[in-house]
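Work Package 4 report. The design task specified in the project plan requires that, given a folded chain encoded as structure tokens, an amino acid be chosen for each position. We show below one input record used in the internal validation round.
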């Protein structure tokens, strides 16, 4: 699982069975594809989403992926209509701007590893007045590091934004970064290549969304039938991977996905998903209002959003119409 990123929960055979998912009649492909914007580089971590997109395409839903250099740019692309669907968890953006975008599918839950160069730091208290590096502004990585800042009574001198867990791990190995946060695969990479030089800082258990899919409300309304088919294929793909992570390798070859990714990285695809499934980071149900309240509680504690999670309206951030349609 070296040189990649992130993970989350599920079990095969949840509410949505394979038989149920196969009932929808394929649509006639529209001329304009549904464009999915990812504020990150193409990596093995993207394979589950790319597989679901290919399966939706087989059922007549035109789709394509486009990559941006940050989640901030991706959410702006969705807001402006340059893209239709985004990847991320833009709670703070929605809360601060009132933008007409809503999340509709929970892809993964948060599992990250704050890590430091032990030759420089040994614990959270050593990061007081020091710089840390996270994925992007408003990301789960920043929220977790901000939460730890508050819990440990410290104040970072600066937070730098470097997209890509593998990029941040590489910077740790090169010595240009001494405190960051990475996924499980890249923490293992640091251990393999750095030994005791890199240590994981402890964090309390956090149940929060890492990545979700979101869209402009007009896309959700105007292309509801296609979005429903896409969600069906997301559910089916998540169930298949949770039941047998090795299927990722088979489907990657079947659809010829990420052909330009180096072979040594692609060899990590199945181990990555095996570890991800074992860690329970791919939800089987796509999300719920209770998940939204848990996310708000986490982000509020991290200082990224305001409001009482018990009184907020999940509809301010999410729409469950596509999931309800699948059910």
């Amino acid at each position: 699982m070296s040189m990649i990123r992130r993970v989350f929960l599920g079990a095969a055979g949840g509410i949505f069975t394979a038989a149920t998912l196969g009932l929808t009649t394929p649509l006639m492909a529209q001329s304009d594809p549904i464009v999915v914007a990812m504020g990150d580089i193409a990596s093995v971590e993207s394979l589950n989403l790319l597989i679901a997109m290919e399966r939706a395409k087989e059922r007549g839903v035109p789709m394509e992926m486009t990559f941006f250099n940050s989640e901030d740019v991706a959410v702006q692309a969705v807001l402006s209509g340059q893209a239709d669907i985004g990847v991320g968890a833009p709670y703070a953006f929605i809360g601060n701007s009132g933008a007409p975008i809503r999340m509709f599918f929970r892809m993964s839950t948060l599992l990250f590893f704050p890590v430091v160069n032990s030759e420089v730091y040994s614990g959270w208290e050593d990061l007081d007045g020091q710089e840390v590096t996270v994925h992007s502004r408003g990301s789960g990585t920043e929220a977790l590091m901000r939460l730890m800042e508050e819990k440990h009574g410290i104040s970072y001198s600066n937070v730098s934004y470097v997209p890509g867990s593998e990029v941040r791990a590489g910077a740790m190995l090169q010595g240009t970064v001494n405190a960051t946060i990475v996924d499980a695969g890249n923490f293992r990479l640091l251990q393999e290549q750095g030994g005791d030089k890199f240590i994981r800082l402890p964090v309390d258990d956090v149940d929060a969304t890492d990545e979700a899919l979101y869209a402009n409300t007009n896309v959700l309304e105007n292309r509801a039938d296609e979005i429903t088919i896409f969600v069906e294929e997301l559910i089916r793909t998540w169930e298949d991977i949770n039941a047998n992570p090795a299927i990722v390798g088979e489907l990657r070859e079947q659809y010829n996905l990420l052909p330009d990714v180096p072979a040594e990285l692609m060899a990590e695809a199945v181990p990555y998903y095996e570890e991800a499934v074992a860690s329970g980071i791919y939800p089987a149900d796509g999300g719920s209002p209770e998940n939204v309240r848990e996310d708000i509680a986490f982000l509020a504690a991290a200082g990224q959003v305001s409001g009482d999670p018990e009184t907020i309206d999940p509809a301010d951030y999410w729409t469950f119409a596509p999931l309800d349609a699948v059910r």
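The first strand starts at residue 34 and ends at 38. Validation will be extended to a larger panel in the next phase.
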